[in-house]
Amino acid sequence: MLAHLVPDIRYGLRSLLSRPGFLAAALVTLALGIGANVAVFSVIHTLLMKPLPYADSERLVDVYNSYRGNDLPIAAVSIPDYLDRRKEAPALEESALYTPRSFNLAEAGTQPERLTGSVTTPTLFPTLGVNAALGRTLADADATAGNERVVVLSHALWKNRFGADPAIVGRDVRLNGAPYRVVGVMPEGFFFPDRKTDLWTPFVFTDRQKSDEERGSEYSYMVGRLKPGATIAELDTEMDTIVHRNVERALTLGPRGERWKLFIESSGFTGAARPLRDVYVGDLRPMLWLLQALVACVLLIACANVANLVLTRLSARQREISVRSALGAGRLRIARQLLIENLMLSLAGGALGLVLAYAGVALIRKLGLGGPADAFAISIDRPVLLFSLALAVVTGIVFGSVPALALSRQRAVVALKESGRGQGAGRATRAMRNGLVVVQMAAAVSLLGVAGLLIRSFVEVEQQSPGFRSEGVLSATIDLPDLRYPDNTARSQFYERLVGEARALSGVESAGLVSNMPFGGVDGSGNYLIDGIDLKVGTFPHAYQQMVDEDFFRTMQIPVLQGRTFAASDTPDAGPVAIVDELLAKKYFAGRNPIGQRISVDYDTSDTSKTKWLTIVGVVGTIKRDQLSEQTTKETVYVYYKQYPESAATLALRTKLAPAMLVAPLRDALKRIDPEQPLFDIRTMTERIAISLDGRRTPMLLLMLFATVALALAAVGIYGVLAFAVALRTGEIGVRLSLGATPRDILQLVIGDGGRLTAIGLVLGLAGAVAIGLAMRAQLYGIAAFDPATLAIVATLIGATALIACWLPARRASRVQPTEALRYE
After folding, report:
1. What is the residue-averaged pLDDT of the chain?
2. Dist CA 767 CA 716 (whole Å)
3. Which helix (H) or strand (E) holds 83?
4. Which residues make beta-bridge pairs with 479?
5. Beta strands in 14-91 (DSSP E)
6. Which of 34, 126, 186, 199 has its CA 20 to 30 A from that of 518?
7. Looking at the DSSP assignment, which residues form a beta bridge with residue 65?
8. Alpha carbon of 227 to those of 92, 127, 230: distances in Å?
9. Distance in angstroms (rounded) separating the CA atoms of residues 762 and 794
10. Residue 389 Cα distances to 350, 353, 394, angstroms
11. Element holding 66 (H helix, E strand)
12. How far is it between the farthest Cα atoms of the chain?
């Protein structure tokens, strides 16, 4: 057998090169199908299969708090929670706590630069199993008061900002107005928690932070490494045991402990863990597998199309194959020759598809399908290359076995007889070609149907109101360092000057301040009390808590439904006030006026006499915070920035000018106030909302691209079959015309043949689209999986495309002259 392999390859190569038109059509078709599959698989491999850049990354877990009773399944971790789990959870081999934080790098004579960093326990790097490339990582001694001003740099920051200077270790850099000693540089490729992190400094715990007083103060995140053989389920059980143990201990503390027990029970508080990979992948997993399944339909169409091309080509070679069979060539020998030719064709198509896959990966990266935390660098590496090779081989076997089987099973005498009559392949082969066309049409209709559902869903989401007017709003964030702005008075004065400067800029209609901008990716939330509501009834209320100034609602055009907004007279010496949204008012003050009622976001569960009550002075409209598609279930409490100034805030400017025109003047205004403070995250609100839609837009655009390719391939498939049929039936058509048939009759005959194939494929494809739509219900918004309008549009589009594909060969058939009957054998 091996002796025949080389001659078969040479013969197959000559055979393929002898038909350049066929070769080009088959290669392009295969390249589209294989390239699309490889591109999507590269994303799946990178996000779901490729190990994270840490030692034994499959044992790394994200540990978090959960308040399912407060509709908060994933929350940050307090320092006491971390210390409990580190000490009392045997399933953890090692663990670390970290808090993302901004740093202002302001070297002498340089423009201030905002950096993203983490304040972390020194155990972070041992937990991840990574050492420094230069110097060292953080040590336990660094996490003590007075020794904490040391920093470890990322490789990217070291290279881009410090010119990859190997003498950087031991030097001081100025962060947040203070000198920090560089003790190490991490290796290239290392990131944590994401690729945007520039540096790491030690987390120093105070005695108060380690005490029970800090339980519920959740602003940090925990990562752990499971012991060999330990499971996440075991860790979850251990953390639940810790909570119950703490509750029992709290009961010995009197009323405060009883209130804490009530809070634990009502909020459903516990600890939980998940694989660290899930933090980066987010909600992309089901959509990625759906995309891979749908793009496999494109490959199926490509296989069917190439199989039809091969069948058409082999019909012209049938006399040759029949003679070989009559002279003694066995069926397996003929099938092997055909299969080798098709494998060569498939491998060549796979190589071309790999080129297209590189372009596809670049497109996918540009569309943002790289993980919500920007943690992954999607690429085509060795496993993806092996996948592309395997896919090419399997594809060659799939489409190659169909014509090989069809021709090798024919009896030689019958084949010679049929080929002699000019009929090409026999009835079985023609039926197979027609069946392949039906498969192509059905797959294309299913893809188009799903794409249509996603498009309709996206349009429905885009039309949702966020609760404010986003057009004409520019936002920019600033984070004040504690060293320069250590108290509320200093922060309040800074913000008052900044907002005043912003309002004075030419073209600014209004300017407002908020702690967390809607659609900014960060939301502050917490429990609160309502005066007059017994905590033993129901759950502890939980709400978004936002710091704003008096002009934020006017700038964002959030409607004021009752009462008033904040005023400059609401100083810290005046009575504490709050504004609530409509959702809170309806939830807790139905049937009574919320104005004048009291709530608290700053209270002591052990001594209610120390509760700081805020008087509600206004009710505003409820807004959406993260997604236009979200069903808002969590209320919002707004506090005045002069009474609760935070270190980080976002400035919102409303203008009739192009928002980009305000960036430079705003930077100049900030420089006049404090030249060491940089602005960052400068975006329009329209851009913020557009970014929030990426998770829907990117799969929709990719699927639209795949569906368009599928439709084109299906149209080419039906055209090819009808064109070949017309070529074979030229003599028959001439006879029909000689016997009185009109060109219109011939036109209807050919279009009718194509129409029957299209109709069958359309019915099967619409059924497939509905089935896939039901499977992806979670990805749809505002429409059902069976959406008649969408399916009607898809059917119309398919019908119009198929009609064009049928009309071209039908028109050629209608122009056959009756004299062509003389050629009919």
Report:
1. 84
2. 23
3. helix 79-88
4. 648
5. 60-67, 72-75
6. 199
7. 75, 271
8. 6, 11, 5
9. 9
10. 7, 10, 9
11. strand 60-67
12. 109
Whose tokens are 């006499």? That residue is 609
Query: Using CA atoms, how far apart are residues 708 and 724, in angstroms rounded to an integer?
Result: 24
Distance of alpha carbon 67 from the chain centroid = 25
In this structure, is the dihedral angle defined by the CA atoms of residues 37, 40, 43 and 47, taken in order, positive or negative? negative
Asked if pLDDT for residue 605 goes beyond 70, the answer is no
Instruction: Give the Cα separation of 104 and 98 in Å (integer).
Output: 19
- Count of other CB atoms within 10 angstroms of residue 644: 22
Task: Give 276-309 pLDDT, tens digit per residue.
Answer: 999 888 777 888 888 888 888 888 888 888 887 7
Tokens of 779: 């990805």
Helix ranges restricted to H, 375-467? 382-408, 412-420, 427-462
- Structural element, H or E, at residue 474: strand 473-479
Is pTM beyond 0.70? Reply is yes
Judge contact between 735 and 763, C-beta under 8 A: no
Would you tell me how many other CB atoms lie within 10 Å of the CB of residue 400? Answer: 24
Measured between its terminal Cα atoms, the distance across the chain in Å is 40
pLDDT, average across residues 418-429? 51
Helix (H, G, I), strand (E, B) or coil at 455: helix
> What type of residue sits at position 517?
M
Using CA atoms of 449, 453, 458, 464 in order, give the dihedral in degrees to the nearest 10: 150
Distance CA 45, CA 384 (A): 7
β-pair partners for 100: 118
Nearest in space to 369 (alpha carbons), one of 34, 46, 777:
46
Reported as a single tens digit per residue, the pLDDT across 133-192 is: 999 999 999 999 989 999 999 999 999 999 999 999 999 999 988 899 999 999 998 999
Task: Count CB atoms within 10 A of the CB of residue 485.
Answer: 21
- 150-153/178-185 β-pairing: parallel
Find tokens 């070529």 and name the residue.
Answer: 727
